[in-house]
Amino acid sequence: MECSFPLTVADVLRRKYFERAVVAAGKGGLSRIVKWVHVVEVTKISNLLRGKELILSTGVGWREDASLFLSLLRQLIECDASGLCIELGTYASSIPDEALKLADQHDFPIVFFLEEVPFVEITHDIHTHLINQQYQMISQLESYSQELNKKLLTVHDHREILTCLHDCLGHHVAFKMQGGDVEYIPCRPRQKREASICSGNSGWPVDAVVKPISLFGAEYAELALLPDGRDVNEFDLLILDRTATALAQHLLRNLYAEEKRRTEENEWLKGWLEGEYSDQEISSFLLDHHPSFDSRRGVVWVCKVERAHQKGNFDLTYFKLLCRSLFEQRGFFVFSVEIGRQLAFIALDWRGESTWKKRVEDGIESIKASDFVRTRLPSLSIGVGTFVNSLSAMNQSYRAALEALKIRNRLKDQTVSPFYEDLHLYRMIMVLDKYSNLRETACQYLGPIIEYDRKYNGKLLETLKVYLQCNGSKQETAKRLFIVRQTLYHRIEKLESFLGPDFMAPDKRLAIELMIKAYDCLMDADEISYRHRNVQRWAD
PANTHER family annotated for this entry (predicted)? Predict the structure, then answer.
């Protein structure tokens, strides 16, 4: 289905009323595209043109004034007009040699009508042809789209879609997935392929028209037309765009099927995370299922998936596919494991340990910023384990990721790092809480302050936190709290009445800061206030 779009000056010269027309200059520009026809009899025209117009004129605007004609000609060239057709005899009998040289220099066609011609009939004929051509283009585009949609139901290899594009346009077609080799339809000899790769940027020939194919907001592949016998035109670009969309759908379907297959590996992967297999057993599994991959280091990260709070028809497979795609772009080979209400990702690193944390952080930010997560999992919480250098140690990273997720789910401040290795004090608090009565200790320190805030809206706890963060600087504390110094002095006096005048002494201050972290991690204000009131009643 090769198409004769668009209309050129050479095509126009073969139409009715141009039998006795003569090309006087600019024969090198007969391939210029014609998108419309204008009759022009004025000499100031640049603000009226949009490009690709064929101009008809009797010369009445300049008559025999060579300077006016040269001015008009320069305007037409600058505006990218298609050409100029002049009816000689009535108002203009000749064209200056300087103008003909200028036209030849810019390959701008100047055509002479040697007898009177009906401009109305010419414009009607060409405009009718252009409109019919547009209708034909839309019709062929629709037919091609329907053909692609039918193919998508049965196609198994993306090369079938590439062949469809080649058959439609006649151009050579090239396709390349990120990290893969270029595929050509039809196949090109090795020498020609090597010459093409060397002739342009990014491995494409200089005349190639390249269309990126994006999945999950990132470039996944590239589709290119390599002109063969003619230039790439507007119709070609529309067909290329439709084909790229079809390829994206096909690739996404294949990725989805691959992710479904990976789900079947889920039980074995659970055993991996539980530490049931040795390095040799894990390596054997990877060799059987993914023979091209070779890595012994990585990290596990987990997230909690609350199905009851999902918006709409949530597809966990799509979410896993999104995560895998974004992490693979950052140098990780990813396995996903469903364990109860949690989803764990084993991310094997193939780049380098020095940059793993930054790449994981970027991947998590991209996941949270995606439309899919923002609309369906707006409160997604993630915990990242430790980076390990052996396959059998992934269960250690998994346990650390669970601990990080547990800590983050209990914190009010979700800006805290999701990385286990960054949660220093919070990890200590969880251990202390497990082996001691940490809640009662926190109540002894903070109970009176929280009870006072509850009764009088005193904002003492907030003041205490900021005062400690500012290392006891009253000026900086008042500035960050947006209060006057006198108000701050009053609050500090109240804090001293509850904590003692020495609460900024190093040891006591350290204990108070630890209790504040424990309060953020373990309890809420109602619990600690309740405990404080019970302690008071017992004391009374």
Answer: CARBOHYDRATE DIACID REGULATOR, DNA-BINDING TRANSCRIPTIONAL ACTIVATOR ADER
User: Is the domain of 271 the same as that of 199?
Assistant: no
**49 and 68 fall within a common domain:** yes
**Is the pLDDT at 262 greater than 60, yes or no?**
yes
pLDDT of residue 190: 52
| Alpha-carbon radius of gyration of the chain | 37
CB 161 within 8 Å of CB 255: no
Which residue would you say has higher pLDDT here, 312 or 485?
485
Helix (H) / strand (E) element for 282: namely helix 279-289
Average model confidence (pLDDT) across the chain: 84
pLDDT of residue 308: 42
One-character DSSP codes across 15-30: STT-TTEEEEE-GGGT
197 is a domain residue: yes
Per the structure, the complete domain to which residue 443 belongs is given by 432-539
Q: What integer is the mean pLDDT of 425-436?
A: 78
Domain final residue, candidates 258, 285, 314: 258
Identify which of 250, 4, 53, 67 has the alpha carbon closest to the alpha carbon of residue 151: 250
CA angle 151, 154, 155 (to 5 degrees): 70
Task: Identify the band that residue 540 occupies on the pLDDT scale cut at 50, 70 and 90.
Answer: very low
Give a yes or no: residue 478 inside a domain.
Answer: yes
Q: How many structural domains comprise the chain?
A: 4
Phi, psi torsion values for 150, nearest 5 degrees: -65, -40
What is the CATH classification number for the domain harbouring 455?
Answer: 1.10.10
Instruction: List the beta strands (DSSP E) in 30-98.
Output: 36-39, 53-57, 83-87
Q: Are residues 175 and 240 in the same domain?
A: yes
Q: What is the band of 344 on the pLDDT scale with cuts at 50, 70, 90?
A: very high
Q: What does pTM read for this prediction?
A: 0.51
Domain with 105 in it: what CATH number?
3.40.1390.20
Residues 462 and 395 in one domain: no
Domain final residue, candidates 230, 258, 286: 258
Exposed, middle or buried by CB within 10 Å (0-12, 13-18, 19+), for 17? middle
Q: Do 250 and 161 form a contact (C-beta atoms < 8 A)?
A: yes
Q: Between 199 and 364, where is the model more confident?
A: 364
Residue 138 falls inside a structural domain:
no
113-128 tens-digit pLDDT:
988 889 999 999 999 8
Q: Are residues 446 and 353 in the same domain?
A: no
d(Cα 23, Cα 84) in Å, to the nearest integer?
A: 10
What value does the mean pLDDT take over residues 233-262?
84
| Closest C-alpha among 41, 16, 29 to residue 111 | 29
Looking at the structure, tell me whether residues 238 and 329 fall in a common domain.
no
